[in-house]
Amino acid sequence: MSYAGDDMSTGYQTIYNDLRESLMLARKNITSYFLGILGLLLVSAIVISVSALVVLGITYISVGGDFNTWIYGLQQMAVLNPDVLVLGGFGIAVLLIASLFMTLIGPLFGMSYEVAATGSTRAEAVFSWLRSRFVKYFICGSLMALIVAGVPILLWYINALFYNYSIPPLVESGLSVFTSVWVFVTIALTSMVMPAITRGSAVIEAFRVSLRLATKRFERIFGLWCAILLLLLVTFGPSIVWTTVMGPMIPSQFLLTSSIVFGSLIIAVFTVVVAFAWWLLLFPMVLIALCRVYSELTTELGGQKSTDSVGMHSRSAI
Which residues contact 183 (CB under 8 A, 6 or more apart)? Predict the structure, then answer.
């Protein structure tokens, strides 16, 4: 199977070909990705529900069935130690969500590896990859969440404490810029970790390979992520701009004119269509593109060989 960029040079055409060919493969396997992502969402919903029930059960037993006392204790903690409950709780929640998200996209990288290698996959493959690589996906997902989200959260936390929860606008703007740049750079630097895990690398080796590829072929990986970021801005930008500009005006001025109502309806429909497009096509396209680029660059730079024998539906029935 040929990959874009075989001339070992990176330009707009190379990145365009990466995304175009990956989109074609995603469209070919649209049903498999739809069912695979839906299956992962159902599994995550079950896991979250069971975990919540376990936590509530333990809490119920520990407080002797008196939830009012427990809630009152949380309220007192929020008053006496807002940094612990509010900022700390928010930071932990973000890290947990990020870890769960990164863990669950691991099996989708497995499906995308199959698509990049054979041109097709099956929805059931997502569970095969989840079962065979869960521990590695979970460890890598948690580490990536700490790297990408943990540092900005810690920095915001420290500044909130330093300024007594009233961060000056200039400092807040600086923190926002730093957070945006940090998230983009660290996602790009670690974007080859999941493909490496899927291809059989150990956790530390996967991070090492990802950093090596991102630094040696900086223009290829960061160029791809710039294109992905541009695609996100083009697809979700109108909704964000409309909400930012019109959102504060409507409730305060009651400017419910027919044009604003019609515009809001158009934006709502557009947002729903875009969200489904990302679910069915664009998100799988990104995963396939990353797997294709990983395979090409590891071959080009003398990287790892695949040690995987799991999940490839062409070799075994799932």
Answer: 148, 149, 152
